[in-house]
Amino acid sequence: MNNIISALIGILISVMIMFNGTLSNVFGNYVSGTIIHIVGLICVLFILLITKSKLKIKKGIPLYLYSAGAIGVFTVLFTNISFSVLGVSIPVALGLLGQSIASIVIDHFGLLGMNKIKFHKKKFIGLLLIVVGVIFMAIF
Asked: What is the pTM of this model?
């Protein structure tokens, strides 16, 4: 089930980049970013109301974890900027390459409180295929 949900996330990200980029072409990068995040906030508040969940700020959580919201803002801004030049597929492919490399480094060294999961040389073949695929997509 988690694999199916993860695949659906990939589909949603592609559609999101197209919608966000189109909004950015109409309103500009900063106004569209504001619209996108206000709509997201409204959706989350609606879900919280439906599920009757309470918003709680917990103590003892490292402050850097709260930066995820800022990372989301920059992710939307950067994909909006690149969308008008590169379309949907190249930003998604390059984003997946960046995610793959960052996740390998985070796992291998156990950064940000994660358990260490060593990068085995066998996995390098998969990473190399991703790099070659992105290069082919960017060239052709």
From this structure: 0.79
Q: How many residues does the chain have?
A: 140
Question: The tokens of 90 are what?
Answer: 């190249």
117 Cβ neighbours under 8 A, 6+ residues apart: 107, 108
Q: For residue 97, how many other CB atoms are within 10 A of its CB?
A: 16
Rg value, the chain, Cα:
18
The Cα–Cα gap between 58 and 119 comes to 33
The Cα–Cα gap between 103 and 106 comes to: 5
Asked if pLDDT for residue 54 goes beyond 90, the answer is no
Task: Delimit the domains of the chain by residue range.
Answer: 1-87, 88-140
Angle at 120 between CA 115 and CA 126, to 5 degrees: 110
pLDDT digits (tens, 9 = 90+) for 108-124: 999 988 999 999 888 88
